[in-house]
Amino acid sequence: MGNIQAVIDLPEQLYLSLSGFGLTKERIANESRKLLALKYFKEKVLSLGRSAELSGLSKWDFIEYLSDNDVPVVDYDQDEITRELETAEKLTERLKK
Length: 97
Known about the structure:
Layout: H1 12-19, H2 25-42, H3 48-55, H4 59-68, H5 78-96
C-alpha cells in the first residue's frame, strides 16, 4: 500500500515565526507526526508499533520519546496488574514442581 498525505494549513505569520527559530516545513511535519503518535498511543488509539510507525521513529526510539515526555509504555490499571501478578505466581509455582 502507498502513503496518504494529511496536510495542515498554517497561517503565514505563524509559519514565519516558526521559521525564524529554524523550523522548516519538514521539521514541523516531523514534530507533528511524533506528537500525534504520542497522543494516539497515550489515548490507546494506536499500539506501540503503529505509533512508532506514525512517528517515523524506530520502536526503541519511540519508547525513549515516550519516556522523554513522561508517557508510560505500559499503563495497567489495578485489575490488570492483579491478573498479571496472579499469572506470574501460577507460572512460578509450576516451575517449582
